[in-house]
Write a structure and sequence with these properties.
The protein is 5% helix and 35% strand. The strands form five sheets. The chain has a six-stranded antiparallel beta sheet with strand order 11-19-18-15-13-14, with no helix packed on it. A four-stranded antiparallel beta sheet has the order 1-2-3-4, with no helix packed on it. The radius of gyration is 19 Å and the shape is globular.
Length: 278
């Protein structure tokens, strides 16, 4: 009796389209119907849907999609620094630049390729970038969508001319939640954190889990590599796994700050939470 098997070809699961501003965006799909959208503006994941079509990433209804403004939502890439840093723009310039598709990426391991689609992007500094941050680099980003719907981002930063430089980096991940007051984060209890609402004063987390009743903007130090975000109302858990990123940033602007941001709805803080490997 003969045998037959469906062979998954990740290349057929990738589509390149253009957004409303004519910027290329890459759509990844898996055999079960999950999808991820990646914009070449910022190398930013703008959408991640599960096999039921439910959106897992938050994007503000007031987000500005036109360069050079960074889009409020998805997973912005913060590089070469995270936060405010002197003359450089907030969270660095990588999220505001046009990336290119890597024409010769490293292959997937055969045992890791079944049902997975992926795209490799590259960012190289422009002459203007080198004027404000004079370091030669190549930033290689792989975004992959696995057969089980898991989304993975892998970054490699290459020093081109061998002169050492320092940088900071974060995946500024906007998760969509049903109601922020019904959400808790597990895995950060007992850790020290820097509170950006108190001039980065250092505190120790006292709760058995992090819950939300007001604005939160904290950097949890030396955090574990697995953190869980539990959405009780939706009966859904995000499991965040990270490697090589020591800290976790937790941010929700709450009511007052939301009203001060032009690209964020007044009430949208209730439906989002940023949990960033940094």
């Amino acid at each position: 009796m003969g045998h037959s098997a469906l062979v998954w070809d990740h290349r057929t699961a990738i589509e390149v389209t253009k957004d409303l501003n004519g910027i290329d965006q890459v759509v990844l799909r898996n055999p079960q119907g999950a999808s991820a959208w990646v914009s070449l503006h910022g190398g930013q994941v703008t959408s991640w849907r599960n096999d039921r079509g439910e959106e897992l990433l938050f994007t503000s209804s007031k987000a500005i999609f036109k360069p050079p403004k960074a889009m409020r939502g998805g997973i912005p890439i913060c590089f070469p620094h995270f936060g405010n840093c002197g003359s450089l723009e907030q969270h660095g310039f990588a999220r505001n630049r046009i990336w290119i598709i890597d024409s010769n990426p490293p292959p997937l391991h055969p045992y890791d390729s079944h049902g997975k689609s992926f795209i490799d992007l590259v960012l190289k500094p422009s002459e203007e970038d080198l004027k404000c941050w004079p370091h030669s680099f190549e930033f290689h980003l792989r975004v992959s969508l696995a057969a089980d719907g898991n989304l993975t981002l892998i970054s490699r930063i290459r020093n081109i001319n061998g002169k050492p430089f320092n940088f900071s980096f974060a995946y500024h991940t906007y998760l969509t939640v049903s109601d922020i007051s019904e959400v808790r984060i597990e895995g950060l209890e007992t850790l020290d954190y820097l509170d950006n609402l108190c001039q980065r004063e250092r505190f120790t987390e006292q709760g058995d889990a992090i819950t939300f009743e007001s604005e939160v903007d904290r950097v949890y130090l030396s955090s574990p590599n697995i953190i869980a975000v539990l959405d009780h109302e939706r009966k859904q858990t995000y499991v965040i796994r990270k490697e090589g990123l020591p800290d976790v940033v937790v941010w929700n602007p709450w009511e007052k700050k939301s009203k001060s941001m032009i690209d964020f709805g007044d009430e949208e803080y209730k439906q989002m939470l940023c949990v960033d490997g940094a």
